[in-house]
Amino acid sequence: MGSASLPSNPWIETPLIESSALSKAAGCRIFLKLENLQPSGSFKSRGIGALLQHSLLNHHNPNVVHFYCSSGGNAGLACVSAARTLNRPATVVVPLITKPLMVAKLRSAGAYEVVQVGENWKAADTYLQERLLQNDEGGVYVPPFDHPEIWEGHSTLVSEVARQLQDQGEEGADAMVCSVGGGGLLCGVLLGLERQHCDWSKACKVLALETEGAESLHKSLQQGQLVTLPRITTIATSLGATRVAQKAFDLAQKHGITSAVLSDAEAAMGCWRFADDERIMVEPACGINLAVCYDGRLKQLLPELTPKSKVVIVVCGGSNVTLQTLMAYRNEYGWIEKSTTNDAEVPSTLSAPPNGCHVR
């Protein structure tokens, strides 16, 4: 099957914008890579889309291909969105605990079928592979993060950033910030930097962030070997991989990245502050990338940054967020405002609850 017979990429080039509010809060130049604008609502459109393209190009009969994914989150949405663009069906199997909102989003996105079965992801995935995939000759399994083609897709983000910075008259980035769940995005960022073959990409620092209760990469780097978490205990459920991909661990060690862990409160704060400053809603798995701009953590973690340093934050997006969710976060974690920036030139400072009190 020739590439000319495939529709256009199931992902888009997203804007790279400099944020005056976050730059003021962080004390350096903050550029936002708006992956929340991807067709599926998250960066996963790149990696999952690339995998689906690759599968069709290499299948002996692409017209019978049916994609199957067991993610009820952003990977599932990316699979459905990409499959629709590529004119192929996609079935998503999710556990019974999946929120009705996400099931509705999967169906609205154009899923061929959404099957709810099992008490957890493992049970849903087992059902997919043993009951559905084995009985479909055209069935293709779509993992959420651990696949070379997924990493290749995510690496396109870096080449875009390089070109967009150049178009804006900038030489390159001094640092890039991304969150880590299974490690697919981190793999893409590090592979993408390797392939730039220029001075700035070799010197570019990478800050990888996780929340407490999902810090599989951080613990693995501390112990020098892959660590499997006993369970996930964070509100940032999109980061809920108990074990990071081997490739992500290997690349993180090779490049000497900076790994840090933030609390759920910080992740939530990043969400509501970002909504106030940039009018964009993201889920906590993305909020941790933004939180470091508000609590002084960015310069603590990367002390070499200066006011002129350029930091690219991957706004990875995510669909598991509503206005009601953000209000609930602010009500529960509003106390954290006491330790965040109080600069009056940062809009979200003025919209914060007085004295960090809860919203009623």
Q: Can you walk through the features of this model?
A:
- Helices cover 43% and strands 14% of the residues.
- The protein is an alpha/beta fold and 360 residues long.
- The strands form 2 sheets. A 6-stranded mixed sheet has the order 1-2-10-7-8-9, sandwiched between helices.
- Helix 3 links the parallel strand 3 and strand 4.
Which descriptors would you attach to this protein?
single chain; 360 residues; alpha/beta; six-stranded mixed β-sheet; four-stranded parallel β-sheet; 15 helices
Q: What is the first-to-last residue Cα distance?
A: 59 Å
H-E string: EHEHEHEHEHEHEHHEHHEHHHEHH
Q: Return Rg in Å.
A: 20 Å
Task: Write down how many β-strands occur, each being a DSSP E stretch of 2 or more residues.
Answer: 10
Mean pLDDT equals 90
Tell me the strand percentage band: 5-15%
Q: What general form does the structure show?
A: globular
- Spatial strand sequence of the major β-sheet: 1-2-10-7-8-9
* Uncertain ranges: none
Number of distinct helices? 15
